[in-house]
Write the structure tokens for this entry.
Amino acid sequence: MKVQVNIYQKKYDIIVIGAGHAGCEAALSSARMGCSVLLVAIDLDKVASMPCSPSIGGIAKGQLVKEIDALGGEMAKITDKTAIQYRTLNTKKGPAVHSSRTQNDKIRYHMAMKAVIEKQPNLDLKQAMIERLVIENNSIAGVEDNTGFGYPAKAVILAAGTFLSGLVHIGFNSFKSGRAGEFASYGLPEHLKQLGFQLGRLKTGTPPRLKKSSIDFCFSLFGYLNLFRLLFCTYFAVCFIT
């Protein structure tokens, strides 16, 4: 095992790697159960970031969010605080496939979730690039970052998402990145392979953006509910349907 030069004095019950939707919920739920928790993110300005599609809900994700909400999670609460448009999907079909979905202000969502995390007792938030799991006597003992600094813990939760061996494709060009312009994690997945884990890759896609000034909205429709919200709630946005 690689010898650590520096070790953080505080020993945590749980360390959560990654501060996306899953990491934030894992850290908050663990802290609220009385565990001492460290949440580690590559960039603290990207905690709970919503860069590609700033929406919450849909047939699959919407059900998960409601289950998390029923269990006392934070995602649905932050969604309601930062929503700029609400819609029910599949209303022309049966009620079994009806699903609520919001579009959210991604900057406000990030700020609101980060504020909840920073105020949560038993929960510390740190910026670091974790590259190794520390194993002692076949049990997890903590993590180590890319500077060799160690953080001891009894358990580790990996919620790194697509940042593990992150690769961005734009047309026929590819480059290493967590998201465009952000660091990817390559040391940690390599270490996981050394420990015997098999890693795969899941693809996410970002559709092309449309320039608003180039669209003739005379041929688009939007619901009366959206009109009501626009008249009385200035922070709501129109959702056009072509």
Observations:
- The chain has six helices and twelve strands.
